[in-house]
Write a structure and sequence with these properties.
The complex is a heterodimer of chains A (about 300) and B (about 425). Chain A is mainly alpha-helical. Chain A has a single domain, classed as MetI-like fold. Helices cover about 70% and strands about 0% of the residues of chain A. Chain A contains 14 helices and no strands. In chain A, α3 packs across α14. The two termini of chain A are about 30 Å apart. The relative contact order of chain A is 0.13. Chain B is of the alpha/beta class. Chain B has two domains: about 150 residues, Periplasmic binding protein-like II (D-Maltodextrin-Binding Protein, domain 2), CATH 3.40.190.10; about 210 residues, 3-Layer(aba) Sandwich (D-Maltodextrin-Binding Protein, domain 2), CATH 3.40.190.10. In chain B, strands 6, 7, 8, 9, 10, 12 and 13 form a seven-stranded mixed sheet that branches. Chain B has a four-stranded mixed sheet with strand order 2-1-3-11. In chain B, strands 4-5 form a two-stranded antiparallel sheet. The N terminus of chain B is likely disordered.
Chain lengths: ~300, ~425
């Protein structure tokens, strides 16, 4: 009886048909077509011919693309570690019973709702290289004048300046996911640990942290994917420069298509990027899921 | 509740019909009769607003966007076969939206039968024509030179403008002594990086080798073994002498503009098309003027860069080809060339008694009339990758990350790619 009711309540599958149709037209078909173009020399206009794996072999020998792959990996590792580290600390901070915690949650999360391009433009002001403006001005006013830098113009710094900007924007986002995880840690377990004489660190390490594992899985995966396909912030803040110092796979594939007119090569990069993101995500989920525990 | 009475079939018909209508509306927008579709870059809005209104014979559905957005959208539309009837086209070759690249794909209508095309000056023909056929309309040319703040020059006691490279260095030195930044450079904005090279190369390359572009094309010349070396050395010499602002790679075009407008810096090497930006930012429009950058050791060895400004073309697949071409013919009338040129402060393609040329461009006219002007270098480059490579190597040179031989080897390699 109960089974029948449930089946009755389930909507028929074809209710999803209109949405699936739109999805197929807007996402599946172009993606499939993109795979085909990756094996051509299409310039975006005019005719094209199939050139086999030439685009893919070019990808490995192309210095600029390889450099951007290294940049992308560095950016991703930095963002995943720092963003989630800060996100976790923020979450632990505002999870405590302090008065202004609701307000603080809103403030920390606020940057995540702003468009990344807007954030990049704002940070261009912060990163103004003039000695008395933006971040440099702030450093000077607190006596750290010797730390002043050309944040986006120094090839050794530009990539990290972009990473910091991304972390600033999305640490609050990680915080929210960790907070959701913290809510699910039962108070009685913490209390039991306290009675057993566990200190703050021990309670975190042996009770909270293991139970946070599902949240870690989610936020690490989201930030990894976000880092690997980072585009808007880099494009708006440095356009990949100075020189090629902050070029990422996404900015390279954009330029190959829309600036250089190498659509075939660009879709090949996009395909490799997509497969790479999928592979990394699968491995991550597998590894991180393995350490998840539940309260039973 | 009406929805309660809707049966399954009716619901399907309703939703399916809605989806189909939406899909059709999305695809078939261009079929409806809403005038000529026109897409331009932001710089073209002022003249085109004026001239489409003056034309009056057809209605226009016009839109304008920044260069990179137009490059993305119009090229995609060209590829999909639904390009606007009239759209932005860059003169010559060297970019994804340039005349030569689009004409190669047979996507631009031939304008050669129009009267104005007969008057295109000989030295500008490569910008307009491929295989002898004209594919782009443009109202004239802009120049690259030093945009300077007259007040700052006067305060530093500079009364005569430099006409040779040593004099130019002397002027910079005087300005530096007076505590001013002689030259503001916003090299974080990629396109700004190329302007100093372009300002110097006519004097270091083309004075000796007017056929340099041809030699490059047939493979008998290279960047690395040409006056390009001298131009880049002069560029870096300006930096070494401290004539630029600090942190050029972190400074943007907007900051560069404001430095000159506020008098913090004395000049910026820029294209005349951005004069309005400098004037807008200055206390008074009259504070801003321009002079040719003298890249030669003597005055007779100075040539200048003068490039055809961004223009428009007609889509070869336009359903309103005849109407669109008629509008281009209208743009080609002398009074309309004058109107467009005046709106963007460029030198008209052909002049008559009623042509008004922005007086700050006066010092450039003798060069243009004396055949001492060279089109912007990228307009002769064979693919769209050389120009961005030039931006990148200049940033690397300014950041001390590469050497001039390495930078030019990279340009040569990119040039030969196609």
């Amino acid at each position: 009886m109960r089974g029948r009711t449930r089946r009755f309540l389930l909507p028929p599958w074809w209710f999803a048909a209109p949405a699936l149709l739109v999805y197929a037209v807007v996402v599946l078909y172009p993606s499939g077509a993109g795979v085909v173009y990756a094996f051509t020399d299409w310039t975006g206009i005019g005719d094209f011919s199939f050139i086999g794996f030439e685009n893919f072999t070019k990808l490995w020998s192309d210095e600029a693309t390889r450099g951007s792959l290294v940049n992308t990996l560095l950016l991703t590792v930095a963002i995943v570690l720092v963003q989630n580290g800060i996100g976790l600390l923020l979450a632990l901070g505002v999870h405590a019973r302090i008065k202004s915690r609701s307000l603080l949650r809103v403030i920390f999360f606020a940057p995540a709702v702003v468009s990344p391009v807007m954030v990049a433009f704002l940070w261009k002001y912060v990163y103004n290289p003039k000695p008395n403006e933006g971040l440099n001005g702030l450093l000077a006013s607190i006596g750290l004048g010797s730390w002043r830098q050309d944040w986006l113009g120094d090839p050794d710094l530009a990539l990290w300046s972009v990473a910091f900007m991304v972390v600033w924007q999305f640490a609050g986002y990680s915080m929210v996911i960790f907070l959701a995880g913290l809510e699910s840690v039962p108070d009685n377990l913490i209390e039991a640990a306290m009675i057993d004489g566990a200190g703050r660190w021990q309670r975190f390490r042996h009770v909270t942290w293991p139970l946070l594992a599902p949240a870690v899985t989610v936020t690490v995966m989201l930030s990894t994917i976000g880092g690997l396909k980072l585009f808007d912030q880099v494009y708006a803040a440095t356009n990949g420069g100075p020189g090629y110092a902050s070029e990422t796979l996404s900015t390279v594939l954009y330029k190959q298509a829309f600036v250089f007119g190498n659509y075939g090569y660009s879709t090949a990069i996009a395909l490799v990027l997509a497969l790479f993101v999928a592979a990394v995500s699968l491995v991550q989920v597998h590894l991180l899921r393995g350490r998840e525990v539940t309260v039973s | 509740m009406t929805i309660g009475k809707l049966n399954r079939r009716g619901f399907l018909a309703l939703t399916g019909g809605f989806a189909a209508t939406a899909a059709l509306a999305g695809c078939g927008g261009s079929g409806s009769d809403d005038g000529l579709r026109l897409v331009g870059v932001a710089d073209q809005q002022k003249p085109l607003d004026e001239l489409t209104k003056a034309y009056g014979k057809v209605s226009f559905n016009a839109s304008y966007a920044p260069t990179d957005q137009v490059q993305t959208s119009v090229r995609t539309q060209l590829g999909a076969g639904n390009a606007p009837d009239i759209h932005v086209v860059y003169p010559g070759n060297g970019s994804a939206m340039s005349m030569a690249q689009i004409a190669d794909a047979n996507l631009l209508a031939d304008l050669s039968d129009q009267a104005w095309t007969k008057k295109i000056p000989e030295n500008f023909k490569p910008a307009f024509q491929k295989d002898g056929k004209t594919y782009i309309y443009s109202a004239g040319s802009s120049v690259i030179g030093a945009v300077y703040n007259k007040k700052v020059f006067a305060e530093a006691g500079i009364t005569t403008l430099p006409t040779t490279w040593p004099e130019f260095l002397q002027v910079c030195d005087t300005l530096k002594q007076k505590g001013k930044v002689p030259i503001a450079l916003g090299a974080q904005t990629p396109w700004v990086t190329q302007l100093i090279t372009y300002a110097l190369v006519p004097s270091t390359v083309y004075v000796k080798d007017p056929d340099f572009d041809k030699q490059m094309a047939d493979g008998s010349a290279t960047f690395a073994d040409s006056g390009w070396v001298d131009a880049l050395e002069m560029y870096l010499d300006l930096q070494k002498r401290g004539y630029f602002n600090d942190n050029v790679n972190g400074t943007t075009f907007e900051q560069q503009t404001s430095m000159v407008a506020t008098g913090e810096a004395a000049m910026a090497i820029q294209v005349s098309a951005v004069l309005p930006d400098f004037r807008k930012a200055a206390d008074s429009e009259d504070d801003i003027s321009m002079f040719p950058v003298p890249g030669g050791a003597t005055a007779d060895q100075v040539w200048i860069p003068a490039g055809i400004v961004v223009g428009v073309g007609v889509s070869a697949r336009s359903k309103k080809l005849a109407e669109a071409k008629k509008f281009i013919e209208f743009l080609g009338e002398q009074k309309n060339i004058n109107a467009w040129a005046e709106a963007v402060a460029c030198v008209p393609l052909v002049k008559d008694a009623s042509s008004k040329i922005d007086p700050v461009l006066d010092p450039f006219l003798p060069f243009m009339e004396g055949n001492k002007a060279v089109p912007f270098m990228d307009q002769a480059w064979p693919n769209a990758e050389v120009q961005p490579a030039h931006f990148a190597v200049v940033q690397e040179l300014l950041g001390g990350e590469t050497t001039i031989p390495q930078a030019l080897a990279k340009l040569d390699q990119t040039y030969r790619k196609s």
